[in-house]
Amino acid sequence: MASHHHEHSPAEKRALRLRLRKISGQLAAIERMIEADRDCPEVLMQVVSARKALKSFAQVVIHQHAHQCIEGASDPREGRRKLHELLSVLERYVE
To answer: Which CATH number do you get for residue 50?
Structure first.
């Protein structure tokens, strides 16, 4: 898959980093729960929360890509190429 450069604004970067830190914290909490022999339903609830947070992160990135990279493409051919790249990734995302 071809790669292209996308620049996130400083505000976008901060927001994305904050989301990732929260997800990292959730994953670390799951690890601590396993080490502490917490009940499986408690662990699984934390897994559900982390999964939802990761899904939300992906939705933000998809939205940004669609609006900034695809809609903002320099020409229709470039937009179609970027759309095809996104669709290829999304096929794997929904598996």
So the answer is: 1.20.58.1000
